[in-house]
Amino acid sequence: MGILDKFRLDGRVAVVTGASSGLGVAFARAFAEAGADVVLAARRAGKLADTAELVRQAGRRALVVETDIAAPEQAQHMIDAAVAELGRVDVLVNNAGIGTAYPATRETPEQFREVIDVNLNGAYWAAQAAGRVMAPGASIINISSVLGLTTAGLPQAAYSASKAGLIGLTRDLAQQWGARKGIRVNAIAPGFFKSEMTDGYKPGYLESVTPRVVLGRMGDPEELAATAVWLASPAGGYVTGQTVVVDGGVTIA
Questions:
Q1: What digits encode the pLDDT tens for the residues 51-106?
Q2: CB-facing half-sphere around the CA of 227: CA atoms within 13 A
Q3: What span, in angstroms and rounded, lies between the C-alpha atoms of 167 and 36?
Q4: What is the largest CA-CA distance in the chain?
Q5: pLDDT digits (tens, 9 = 90+) for 164-213
Q6: Residue 201 pLDDT
Q7: pLDDT > 80? residue 152
Q8: CA atoms within 13 Å, Cβ hemisphere of 156
């Protein structure tokens, strides 16, 4: 096997949550181009059809599963459907996430719990279901954030807590499932990438944080997707329990 062949995912099945828009679309397309069939999960089933077409254009099979990842039974159904239709699950990308910007003194319990339920609990339910059926060599990738490591000048207590929690979850699952199951578990902490979430930022915010980015620009979703392909592929076969920061240098500025 040549070095570039180690980045291939031929014959594998990848599950991508939050695949209806933004970074989820980039992940799905990248995995398909690397050779994987892709299970596309999100709450908005209608938008998943567009992502499925991108996967098929790359010559791979696409399975759409409408999923509210915050519900344990729906996370289990997502994995069950993947196995029933495509025969296996080799990769899980826990990308589904929501963000809010409520000041901490005014955030309600319901508002805080909603973010935790999707971003942290949902990732756990999906990983739990996938971990039951994954074979040795499988890979789970949790999409955290630099906001799990630093601050960004916005009131995002729930979001930051959920993303920091994902980093701890990643370490624990890597330890539990490494030698016993042969499953690698890693996290990616993106910096500022164009997405549906950043579209909701107040005008001028992204421009104001650009000076914190050592490389002086926002990230390209394909750069993030390439990192995920590496972690999922044999090229990343000796990497587990790690949080890979892809932020253009925000966390060192």
A1: 999 999 999 999 999 999 999 999 999 999 999 999 999 999 999 999 988 999 99
A2: 20
A3: 26
A4: 56
A5: 999 999 999 999 999 999 999 999 999 988 766 666 666 777 777 788 89
A6: 66
A7: no
A8: 21
CA proximity to 138, closest of 231, 42, 17:
231
Q: Which residues are catalytic?
A: 159
Whether the Cβ atoms of residue 51 and residue 39 lie closer than 8 Å to each other: no
How far apart CA 236 and CA 251 sit, in angstroms, is 23
Neighbours of 149 (CB within 10 A): 17
Q: What is the 3-state composition of the chain as percent helix, strand, coil, each rounded to the nearest 5? A: 50, 15, 35
Q: Which of 144, 234, 230, 226 has the alpha carbon at shortest distance from 182?
A: 234
Task: For residue 236, count CB atoms less than 10 angstroms from its CB and return exposed for 0-12, middle for 13-18, buried for 19 or more.
Answer: buried
